């Protein structure tokens, strides 16, 4: 049982619906993706061909910022109105898609981009599954 | 001339289009709104009737997170594709609208909520004007 | 092998020293602690006795902010000069200590505070072990 | 009267001491410095000689993260114990010093680095003055 699961289980506002599982998965995927993207941005900055990785660095930084904000807002589980959550998770899925595609272009040359592309894809999926369940 | 204006003017990727003005205004409004919302959340936590301000605290925290992420992504001005920017600015406008409306309910009792509601409205406008210009 | 481990392994600036293990552990602990503290703040806000949990909410929010900033800066592994890293990790350990102690006071009544106190303690340890290794 | 000043004035926990002015100045300086550093990182990424600006990009990103976290924690004005605030503001001053020095090296070639160095210096001063007043 993950700590996020434990926290959601003991949260006084636990909705009890089937949404919980998707919510937990999305919070965890966002946390992982933010971490990996921050690391990938820095790894790209350390590569000799950094000049060709500038778009990748920017995509990494954007994606890390989106994932962190999404993780935080999802943790707040604002009751009732899901308009904000929906709009933000959509934007986050978009950031993950863009970053994943960009990283994939360098995945054969830079292994960190390969690992990052995978994390982005996992997070994009988790976002889309949560969106479908809301 | 604000520092943000100076920075955009000296940025090598300056687009030179009319978008610049809206972009600058939105970055500045997001920065201000994030600051004010963080302060409002804490002021609400310090009020005697904190139990009635819980929704307001959450809206403040959500809005601060959205504004910070939006400010950061806008500062990166990812060239070409505006899909992410558009989705994020829409989500940010939504966070500002929700927080502004919630703060307004307590504006007569708590002056910090009045100041915050104003900042949220300014930021929502800046977001919508940028969206229209993109 | 965790994704953070994979990312550090494939980072062009991998130092190869024994520091790597402590660095990875600290990045991961910060990520977990930030997540848990954000969730604990919201869970506290949802409790009936929220008025008595205000100090805990603030400590949670402070700790989440410190852990996120620390995770990001550690991921950048600024070469050579460790002055900033040292100062920040010290501040992070302090935030974890304060939040852990505050959560512990409510741990018997609120299980989320118990889970959070544990995460804070793990993160404080990871910070102190990294400090000792730098 | 700035919005931060208005918010601190209407905060129920206003300390009324002379610290208020330094606190406000530091919150505002951190907000400005975070904004400018994020913009400078991206401007550096857009320069032709990006390969020579990698250390500057990293310093910018570190400084932006420190300034944001500091702004948030200062806004929470945790009562009583200033241990965390002190440690964090120290770390923030260090990040500003490092980033300011790094930006200054490129200030003659890149005007955005010049503007950023100035913002870092202002923020470092605001941090040190708050530290002296605590």
Automatic annotation (TrEMBL), chains A, B, C, D:
<dbReference type="Pfam" id="PF03860">
    <property type="entry name" value="Csp"/>
</dbReference>
<dbReference type="InterPro" id="IPR005560">
    <property type="entry name" value="Csp_YhjQ"/>
</dbReference>
<dbReference type="InterPro" id="IPR044543">
    <property type="entry name" value="YHJQ-like"/>
</dbReference>
<protein>
    <submittedName>
        <fullName>Four-helix bundle copper-binding protein</fullName>
    </submittedName>
</protein>
């Amino acid at each position: 049982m993950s700590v996020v699961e434990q926290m959601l289980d003991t949260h006084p506002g636990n909705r009890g619906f089937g949404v919980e599982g998707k919510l937990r998965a999305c919070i965890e995927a966002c946390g992982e993706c933010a971490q990996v993207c921050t690391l990938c941005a820095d790894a790209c900055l350390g590569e000799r061909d950094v000049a060709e990785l500038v778009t990748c660095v920017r995509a990494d930084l954007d994606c890390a910022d989106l994932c962190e904000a999404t993780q935080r807002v999802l943790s707040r589980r604002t009751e009732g109105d899901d308009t904000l959550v929906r709009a933000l998770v959509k934007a986050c899925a978009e950031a993950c898609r863009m970053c994943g595609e960009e990283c994939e272009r360098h995945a054969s040359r830079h292994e960190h981009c390969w690992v990052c592309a995978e994390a982005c894809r996992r997070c994009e999926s988790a976002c889309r599954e949560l969106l479908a369940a809301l």
